Amino acid sequence: MRKAQAKKLPLAPDPRFNDKLVTRFVNNIMWEGKKSGAYTIFYDAVDRISKQTGENGYEIWKKALSNVTPSVEVRSRRIGGATFQIPAEVRADRKISLSIKWLVRYSRDRNGRSMAEKLANEIIAASKGEGAAFKKKEDVHRMADANKAFAHFRI
Question: Which CATH architecture has domain 36-66+89-153?
């Protein structure tokens, strides 16, 4: 039998925007425990966004995050020897987690000099409804839509 599920540790809000979501985003950017480096990358990216667009970089980041957030996804379920892709609603914490992971992952894959530059460009693209992270969300939604016929197998 499984043990009790681990408790979620509360996140400290970031120093500049006083937002826990920023801390969560920075934790995903972070490599090898270098949190201050990750904060530097994020804040530099927000400043670049402000400079390029002439708007508030923090607001554009929030808009990009909401644009990339999926509402449905497909989950594999084995029924009678066959595996079906069943569309399912995404839990609230998983929505945020997926959108953050996609933004960070696809900004790493971009061309650019620094991570801050790549992240800024991906966030600007996502806020406009473009870019690889937004395309990923569209693909996930398309997959769920294509497999609507198996929705009756839902748990």
Answer: Orthogonal Bundle (1.10)
